[in-house]
Every structure is written in structure tokens, then in C-alpha cells.
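Here is one chain, start to finish.
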Amino acid sequence: MNQQKREQIFARFQAADPHPTTELVYRNPFELLIAVLLSAQATDVSVNKATAPLFAVADSPQAMLDLGEDKLKNYIKTIGLYQTKARHVIQTCRILVEKHHGEVPRCREDLEALPGVGRKTANVVLNTAFGEPTMAVDTHIFRLANRTRLAPGKTVREVEDKLLKVIPKPYLLNAHHWLILHGRYVCKARKPLCEQCLIDDLCEYAAKTVEAA
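Its structure:
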């Protein structure tokens, strides 16, 4: 795919959705961090259902520590891997309180040092909470980047690095959200809705569908 096509793709995304954001519900960087941590192998919808009552009683690292791991589990037990996630959340909150004065760090190295926080989670927090032009490559973005030939790669990191290189700078801050939403709702895994796609004529996917799933 050439750069002219990439420019047109993101110009269309921007025109259709000028202010994209995550579908996770949060009010501060801490809540976003916890929501993203909980969202691994879970849907945003399921996370939001659990975090609405949770954040009502624990919206800071200290409040979460005061709640405790056992009570936390009761709030998130509908989410997959909730026992491991509860442990990671409490461990993360303890580090935030003891090492970062109860604040979510803006440094990638510090974020990735938190239990349960990997590169993708760190990228989401840096991008969404702090306005950094990062690219959190999830399954949707990995699939879309390869399928459309926007930034093909064999690994998540390869796709991330390519996207950061080829996405025009004016669009880089919001690109993460546009690609996730497009992959989630239009460029679906089994049957992409090509006839509903606003970049259908620019996409280089060889096996485009004709009818909606």
C-alpha cells in the first residue's frame, strides 16, 4: 500500500469520527489503567459493567487497597481470569502508592513494571490518558493492518512499529482508536462488512466480501 492511500484512509476516518476514544468508561488515568488491565481477554462491555460499581467505591490506588483483594474479586468475578487480575490490581495499586505517590506514571518503563501491565496496556494509557502518539496493537488492529495491507507484519511489535512509521503524523494520536473501532465493527474477523466499509476502495484485501454477515 502506498502512502497516498494511507493518507486517504485516515482522512476518511477523521471525517467520519473526529474525536474517537476508547469504549472503556473511566474518569481519570487510574480508572483507565485498571479498566485496561481488566480488559485482557474480556470485552469492553463486560469490563464497564463491572467497573461502574467498583469505581464508585474505589477510584484511586489507596481506595482500591482499602477495598482489598477479596472484596475486589466480588466486583470483577464476571470478568475472565478475575482472580489473577484481582491480584495484579492490588499489587499495582500498592506500587502506585509506594513508588509513585498514588499517581499513574507517564513513563513507559514505569507502566510496564506494574503487575499485569504489558506493552499494549501501557500504550493505551499513554495514548488515551496522556495524549501520547502510541499504537496499542490488539487482535483487531493486527488483523486489520495485515488484511488491508496498511502495515503488514508477522508479530504485534512489527505491526506496531510499521504503523507508527507509515501513519501520517496529523492522524497518529487518534489512529489507535479508529483502527480498533473499524476492526471491531466493520473489518470483522470472520466476515468483514466490506460493503459497509468507508475505505473499501482503498483496502488491498484480496478476498473482499460482497454481502454483510
